[in-house]
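TL;DR need structure tokens for one chain.
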Amino acid sequence: MKPIILEKEYTRDTSLIIQMIWFAVHNQMIATYVPEIHRDGLYGVDHLSEGVIEVWENQELLSLLKCGMVEDSFLPSSRLLEIVQHYADMLPVFRRTWVLPYLGSLQELKTYINDVQQYMEANVIYSYMALASDCELYLHDLSKKIRAEDTFFSQTDTLIRNTLHHIYPSIAPFGASICIDEIGDVPDILTLKQRFHSFYQCSDGQTFLGLSEQFETTFPSLLFVLPEQADDNYVVGIIAHPGKITGKVVVVRRVNDISKIQQGDVVISPMTIPSLVSGLKRAGAIVTDEGGLLCHASVISRELHIPCIIATQHATHIFNDGDMVEVNAYNGIVRKI
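>> reply
TL;DR here they are.
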């Protein structure tokens, strides 16, 4: 059997629930745009590791999906623009919901998740079409505008987790470990704690509780690939905002880590999200493993006028809390000193 190559796409402090919705919508769209390989294709794997989720994706399959969407965007029968426009019209409704600290009941949560599942399709479309300059022009421009201001994914996830912790206070802070089909009948706290450390969720619905080595033995057809890192003293990335500083590293993987950030620290994170902004305002520079020029770290660094280097791929693996580094966002290099 030909191995399915999975590449690490991003790491997020999100829940298994929101990631499973993301996977489920991709499966539906792959069935539409790449039907000839949908049956045998695995879109991705989530690895919940020490409270944050590493998302590994089948880039070959994802590339075919994007190409199919671009071609569809020019067809008279295409609904892509209609779906994104309808989402844009519904944004005020979502924003009124996002100001709530949590939803008041299990039924409200289930109803909200159903709404999220419905509108996640738009999130997938504008996330990709914003970067696809070869798609239909109006769809591309609208997608860019929405994506530049987008908080759908992060706000939705925060509300879901806060609601779970409100309804089930005994599980805090392990709400991220609950699967979507367990709402209403959550696992015991010991199981959730075990998942918090290492738990796999595949886009085809299979799950696995255990260490990486055990998972790879159980699923030998999956090949996890990370780009090689030539040196343990520096990383190279894309300049998101220019500048140059020297500072102390603080690694921020979860929202709870923002309390570690002191004035002038170099924040190194898999990727940043809006809920980290209060801490990022104290940062002297931002360095991420992932992202593009429209990502949150790029946008917030320009707003805060601080140096930022994104897409280093390895920064959170190379640097540790307390390391002194030079961030040179003129040549895109972060170096230990």
